[in-house]
């Protein structure tokens, strides 16, 4: 019979003592469990759990104090919220959900510890060896395609002259009256490619354009320009051209105290969708429900194009298809996707939410992830990043658009957005509210 | 087949001791005859030390050839590799690649007065200069050492100050930014000390190493207040490096590579670079 | 002007002959060729010639004539193990492992081959020789395929290349009326050509078109403009990602660190790095000499046209091959050709 290796993260105050209690009472606990003592179940970051699986653990058990009994008051609230989200992410990428378990054991519950440990070990034993670990000699994953073929929706001819004029006019007003120091918008370069532009004077506003290729989420530039520094006056207001999806990022950043709402002047553009380089409607736009920006100080409307039909559940089909596949197939699919990654960090840099001054996955002293551009590191990076965006990702999908290697990163974000909505009734950016997984539990919490 | 230039030689730590707070002296003796490359090295050269399992990083060699069979390094605990090194003790094995880079032209300095300005851990690559001068005392004129640190507990090579002071025509001046109760030497920045000491600048070269900001202000004072020629003002620069052989591309200052074109430059050369070292 | 050698021995072969030849090569060695991987064109090992993507298409540019990543990744892979460290107690043992397979790369475009040549200047021609690069280079034969047209972002002709430059190949193929003209450029290449089976010919390849050339600023111009506000302006949109460097055939910066394989066993690896990253120059003490993204982006352009040629003796040549990848894949539309044209204009 297969003897699994199990890592148990035990909270020092309750569960670790609980395990001791079980030992003192001579209750049987499986020898498969390697206990790691942590100060609190809230300390068990997703990186620790992924690292355990990467290093060959067949199962990970996280035990904390019962809700309401946390030594740090609400540390276990975070575990209660985060670990189920992480589990759904890991499941989506091919781990059997039974391999990660979160439960509560108090200091006196030796028997309960023993029961959970035995149960969990038995479950993992039945599952057999984990497929998650990538052996060092595995060079390249085979290419694996989804059965869902994306039917392209051609983008119709659109005259955006009226919007361009409106943006220029408003930008000119804002700059001339000194209300804003800079307008971030779009321009055409000499190749005719649309790209971000920073306009500082009324004269330069003639560079600004609007067209169906305005793909960049320009709010990405705001934190660096507006970041609040203690003891310093907030930077002057900046105007930014936003689409409905982009605008939500402002709400999230304001909720996270990156800048104040009144530092931003949102030039919201009513959006018919953005096209990709093949001239088709972008994937992100197909499921988009918003035509008008949620955060908006002036609405720019008036396009002569007909409204483009949107299929209501397009990308979700891919999620559903993946979920119906066997865990090993899901794992193969994602490994074949991550395999192409070159760790250029374009996804992270293009993301308005990824604004940490030093990324956890790039730090020189990071013990969570290696420096190598190998399959293991790439998977950890993408899963970790998706997890860090849970409840924060506004679905602008710039990460996927910026990726030179066509990795469907957006699927991970969308999957987690669905999970967060189901669990917490939260959609990122609709209001000024932080991700529910960084806040404490509210209302009744049912164990189990 | 070509040898792997990234493969370090093994050396044994024969002595590890505290020099200052979070700064340790590491003395390495090469194993398996690997010492050949390290049998002679010049003041100002550097080497990569491996803390196996963590990585490697470049450090200025802190002793002069001829001062015993070891290669010395003074290392502050700052990043992951240095933290790993600080956890090692006598008898542990480290890897060494080097010696690398250019050096202070000690031959050219013969017959001249030397002013050595060291700030904090920047004193490490200057120790071989001091040792070299003391070992060939009659070849050089006056040696003035200006030694600075943020705090008395961060001064390096304190146990050697008596040796330095006792040498003929040699003077040592110490300064710290913030003193403790026992401190009876100068207080203030090294530039203030330089102004106060005001050594005669004829037939003199200066050698400076410290944080970039210190190099910047020392240079400024020498040039603007003391009218000292930049070409006689030698500095050794730090840069992040991952190979030390001009391959990894990391340490460039404009078209120059600190690892192979440096780390020793005179300020005339530095002034001619496109990029600043700051 | 065509850069093919008029005196070279040439063969005229059909598509079928070419495929049969490549199948033979794939049987005996590792054959790497442009291949479609999830909709992308990449250099990947192929077992049979029918896996080769003969016409490169990516969604980004339907006429793309080259894979997303250059052949650089074959000689200078994203991650390379430099040696293995065995640690037990105080004992340390280092073990070297080298890549050891013979490889033939088919479908190399002239810009990529020139990129390899430029990397040679650093890894092979400047001491100490990089043993890993040297091994891979020595074990690899490059079969070039001349371009028939410039892609939308290509500008090789402006930086000293041409669509049919055979110089840096071992064998060069030219498409000719549905057939191929094959030319052995080096001894190594000649060795791969099946002498008796192929029909020799006196035909010479068509002259490659040269259009859309623009002047590239000389070194003095770069020096003059170093402290210009221009760099801060154009970099404002830069995301400080590393796409441009990683898709570049000549960007070669790397980082080195040890990684644990299992308890007691580590490997020292080097992997791609890029000067655009914020972390790139930060020293352990926290000093960050290139804190502004404008300084970092400037470094990349200067490296291509000034630093690298100076450092590795390229003379007046640039370290840019004009493949246009950085233009194509930049998420925010930074365009190297725009920079070159702007520098030519008076400040």
Descriptive key words:
heterotrimer, B: 278 residues, alpha/beta, 7 helices, globular, C: 347 residues, alpha+beta, 27% helix
Describe what this molecule looks like in 3D.
The complex is a heterotrimer of chains A (448), B (278) and C (347). Helices cover 35% and strands 11% of the residues of chain A. With 448 residues, chain A is α/β, with parallel strands linked by helices. Chain A has a five-stranded mixed beta sheet. In chain A, strands 2-1-3-4 form a four-stranded parallel beta sheet, sandwiched between helices. In chain A, helix 1 (15-24) links the parallel strand 1 and strand 2 (33-38). Chain B is α/β, with parallel strands linked by helices. Chain B is 19% helix and 31% strand. Chain B has helices at residues 80-86, 127-135, 161-166, 190-197, 212-225, 258-261, 267-271, and strands spanning 9-20, 23-30, 46-51, 55-60, 71-76, 93-100, 113-119, 143-149, 170-176, 186-187, 204-209, 233-236, 252-253, 256-257, 264-266. In chain B, the strands form three sheets. A seven-stranded mixed beta sheet of chain B has the order 10-9-8-7-11-12-15, with helices on both faces. Chain B has a six-stranded antiparallel beta sheet with strand order 4-3-6-1-2-5. The longest helix of chain C has 19 residues, at 293-311. Chain C is globular and about 65 Å long. Chains in contact: A-C, B-C. Chains B and C meet through strand 4 of B and strand 4, strand 5, helix 4, strand 11 and strand 12 of C.
